[in-house]
């Protein structure tokens, strides 16, 4: 299980990027059914991608992409820039689950109220749909095979439009979409973008139903019906006849059909999905190994003082006594004259262990450049003063580091 904070960050980025593209481009199109599956795809990606991990060979991937010679390669290779969040304070956990409980209780109460309406109001079944007649204060809405209709409606045309609208919600199982998004919002109650996604899904459902109805019936009378229902209470997890943002619904109802060639606007959306998947779910073999070590560290409950294990992340990371380790390395590194004369440049990647007593040991060259440059990089690491050792549960442990040392001839 990945840490909670990275899940929040990844899920939020996915929501912002894909929902932003929908709001800017796709929402303006009349491909309503396609938009429905796109929005559900956002829900699935935001929920699942942070948990999916696909490992690819580290060095072959880096070399094939030309990253090994890239000055930004250090971000893949070094652990010194990462501070592991090992434990989440208890009060944050309590706050999160308190929010989950509040949203769950509201949902449960709404379900009970819905059941009460079914049991206490007259109803009849027509073509597999159970119609429940509600008091005047309620709007028309549907939930799965249940159609709730305001019993004060006497006009035949109004009843016909209402039934046609809600029947589309029922036949296309829009309530199932709402159930999924409501559960997503329950888990992510703290994330405003989850609620924006829910609003977009509900609104698109209404676009679908509106579009189908006005193909058969007069638009003017249908608009009057929507306006008459717009200020009545409703349930957040049901398809209600008059959802919010009437202006946008009216615009979409009177909008000319989008030209078919604009279906190509979904191509960039597909590319965005692929990019987000690769960014958050594909990882190199080495990083995967390190993540497994971190997970193992997080789960440790009993660490003895004489442990011989080596970790890449611990509760209390080792502290370099001179402050900024990168600055210190740059100050101590002396460019070999022979290498400088030959114009040799490159990045030497060094791995070492900060031992339990703070000393530096087991220095290895992960990626070398040239013999003299490699030797200088090793010399610099060997000359390090003793660190303040890393600890797990108050016990000193060995911690592994991987740092890049960049050799570059500066232009005079």
Can you tag this structure with a few keywords?
alpha/beta; five-stranded mixed sheet; 412 residues; 15 helices
Beta-strand content estimate: 5-15%
Taking the sheet with the most strands, its summary is:
5 strands, mixed
Distance between the termini: 51 Å
Task: Name the quaternary structure.
Answer: single chain
The number of helices is: 15
Q: Nearest-angstrom radius of gyration?
A: 30 Å
Element order: H for helix, E for strand: HHEHHHEEEEHHHHEHHEHEHHEEHEE
Mean pLDDT: 78
Helix/strand layout:
Layout lengths: L3 H21 L7 H17 L5 E3 L1 H7 L9 H4 L12 H31 L2 E4 L2 E6 L6 E3 L2 E5 L5 H16 L2 H14 L4 H23 L4 H11 L9 E2 L5 H8 L12 H16 E3 H14 L11 E2 L13 H8 L4 H6 L3 E9 L5 E8 L3 H12 L7 E3 L2 E13 L5
Question: What would you say this structure looks like, in words?
Answer:
The chain is of the alpha/beta class and 412 residues long. Helix content is 50%, strand content 15%. The chain is built from 15 helices and 12 strands. It has helices spanning 4-24, 32-48, 58-64, 74-77, 90-120, 156-171, 174-187, 192-214, 219-229, 246-253, 266-281, 285-298, 325-332, 337-342, 371-382, and strands at 54-56, 123-126, 129-134, 141-143, 146-150, 239-240, 282-284, 310-311, 346-354, 360-367, 390-392, 395-407. It is elongated, with a radius of gyration of 30 Å. The two termini are 51 Å apart. Residues 58-88 and 289-306 have low confidence and may be disordered.
